[in-house]
Structure formats: structure tokens, C-alpha cells
# Entry
Amino acid sequence: MEQNAGPLSDIKSPPNLRRVAIDPVSRVEGHGKITLLLDSENHIHEARFHIVEFRGFEKFIQGRPYWEVPFIVQRLCGICPVSHQLAAGKAVDQLVGVEQLTPTAEKLRRLLHFGQTLQSHALHFFHLSSPDFLFGFGSDPAQRNIIGVLEKYPDLALKGVKLRKYGQQVIAAISGKRIHGTATVPGGMNKPLAVAERDALLVDIKNILAWSQDALALNEQIHTAHPEHYRFATIHSNFLSMVGGGGELELYHGGLRARSATGAMIFDQFDYRGFQDILREEVRPWSYMKFPYLVELGKEQGWYRVGPLARVNNCDFISTPLAEAARKHFREFGQGGFVQDTLAYHWARMIEVLHCAESIQALLHDPDITGTDLVADFDEKRMVGVGVIEAPRGTLFHHYQIDEQGLIVKANLIVSTTSNNQAMNESVRSVANEYLEGNEITEGLLNHLEVAVRAYDPCLSCATHALGKMPLQVELLDADGTLLDRLSKGSNGVIERTV
# Structure
């Protein structure tokens, strides 16, 4: 497919087509579906990835005190709650006028985030994606699952379980619980890390480093040994991520960098508090998830990808030595350009797992990590706060506005999966055209579409909290399937009869 192909067609579907749906898409977080429109000879006329669940967090946090927000919004998800808590926490820091945390508070937040990223990446590959690669995309679905992996590859599965468990132990030590704990407060953290808790985490860190290297080697081998993976669901896209001041991979705090598919710089070190100057969101009538794009390039060419593939491509280096060596090897695979292979998301994800393990080890040996100076002094209150973090799935934006009483009056979230929305649709269409076009539709072939979606590690429940009025279409059919009436409500709330 050509570089930066335009958005999927919103033209009405031709008559006499049959619909094939994968509902729900399996082994992803949340609920979504894929629909295909085919003619009598199984030619693909349309392929779309739909998000069909709706969660209105942006609306129902309105009226809540700003200090509650980090703990409310983390309930968006049970897989990546820490990311939402930290992004909201960074926004709340701005609301109370804190620009710089104490060294201990910042390092605790970073340690918490590394634990979150480690456990999320381990969960995604070992539990959700590895069955496809270990057994084959079209293999028996009775075996193509985590139980099948446990039975045939018990040692591998156990390493995956222990990697995730360790990340959750890091989270629990800092926030009190593995899921939906409490840690951030305005301007800092709510409790120190005890020396005994630090020492308990140090016990297994060498194993975690070794297992992370094993997971990386496995993913590299899976990708490089299968040339058919290079083009599978592959698209050429812009990339967006956060980088540190020196251009290094940065997961907690930095400036925004966007590059085109050719590597040309679109912008660099952009202050994320002004993100509305560079990003817009488009609403389409067939999905609850919005479609962001870069303002400079417009709707047609401005869509982009985020997440591990974007981060590893976009950064100039990684600050930890083992992960940096792996990054260089990864970029060599791109032969001087970006690695655009969609399935290389898994390889990049494991480079980040190794980086997280190295970073956790370094932080656990940092004397500041057990300090007790946890909260910075407040400055002048502000009415708007923006927090951005690199969540496991990509760049995550939290934007809040408060009134004089400190109550939320406006909220907007651009979640990582939302940013990948257009790309996931493009990958689905690419796979449909290459593997399903003109063929008899089987479960194995349909799973190829799911493999394409899983590569992005979408968190669909995180991505569907639309702001304002959502488009809606209601159709009335008679017993023979003849369309009798259709009402459509646009994103502006206007209802029209279109039949």
C-alpha cells in the first residue's frame, strides 16, 4: 500500500453485499469488532475496525474536585490504570502550580511507570499475542490461546507470568495495590518506599533482566525468521512520541516529536501543554473512537502511529545499555530507515521491556528512592492542566479545566489507542485485501485480521470516552430486510431523515 494512504471511505456501501463480522475481536482489552463487506465472489469492498463500547469519563468527571481525578480516571482500565493516574497526576501538578517534583517523588513516579509498562507489555505478548506466533495465525483455535501455550511451552509461559507478576509487585509496593492503587497527590506522592519494600524488589531483579533479554531474543527471532511478517498489515505512517531533552527514549516526561514515514522531522521538543495547536480529532459515524491527526498535515495525510514501534523508531538513543544495543540492532533491520512492519511492534515492545527492567534496577539502587521528601511546595493555582505520558500503548494526553472552586468543568483525553485508530483500520484493510480477497472466508483467515489489530495492543475501553454528542444512525427494516426508514444524528446533534 502506498505511503500515508487516505482515510477509509465513508461512501455508502454498494447493494447486494454480504457482511462478515468478527464480534468481538478476541484477545484484546475491551470490546471491538471488525466488519467486512464482500460480494458473491468474496471480493472485499470494505473492511473496518469498529469500537462499539462507550464510556463517558470525560463527561461524568465534570463537577468533581481536581484532586480526585487521578483516582477516578484510572478506573478506565484494569490493565493500564497507572498510566491514567500518572497522566492525570501530571495535569493536577500544573493546576496547583508545581513545575518540578522533589527528586524522590519523581523517581517514585518513574519507578511506578516502569513497573506498569513492564507488566502491561508482558501481559500483551505472552498472554494475548504469543499463541498466534507459536502455533500459527490459522492454527486450531482450541490450541491458539494461553492455555495452549502453557501446555506446549510451559517454561516460556512461566517466564511471561513472572515478568508480569514482578511489574505488578513494583506497582503494589508504591501504590498499595496491584490494580487501582493510590500513589499520586497534587505535587508529589502519598507515601515513601520502605527500605524493606525496596529490598524485596531487588531479590528477583537479576532474573527479570535475564527473562527480559530472553523475551526480546524470542521476538526478534520470530520476526526476522519469517519474511512474510515484514509486509503483514504493514503500512507507512507518520510517528508521534515523547522524547527526552537529548532525543532519548522517554516514557515519563519530555517534549513531543513527530516524524514522517521517510524520517523527516515534522516537529521536535514541542511543549505538550500546547498540544491543541498540533493535534485535532475527527469523529466518524461508524465508531465511538475518534480519529486524531496532525494539524500541519491535515486529515488526509496527518494520521500517525504511537506506541513502542513509534518510540523506538523516533528516539535517537535509549539511556540503558542493553536496550540501546537492541535498539541499534532493530534500526539496522530498517536498513537506514524506519521499521514500518506492523508486526515489529512486538519486537519494539520487548526492547522496552528490557529498558524497563534495567531502569527499575537502577532506581532501586538510587538512594533517593527511599527518601521521605515527597511533596513540592504549591505555587499559584492555574485553571488549566495538561498531563502527557508515554503509556505502554503510546502517547497519552489528559487535559483538564477547573473553576474557582477547584471543580472540573472540562476534560479531554486522547488515549494511545485513539491515536492508532486510523492505522489499525489501514492495517485491517491491508490484511483483508491480501489474505481474504476472493477466498473462502474461514476462521483462520479471519484471525489474520485480529492478528493485525493485536499488534497495536489496543485498549478499547480506554479509547472510547467521547466528548459531546456522538453520531448515531437508526434503521427500520421490514421482515424481508427492506429499508423502510433511516434517521441519522450528526456529531452536531442535528437529526435528519435520510430515506
Observations:
- Residues 470-499 form one domain.
- DSSP finds 16 helices and 17 strands in the chain.
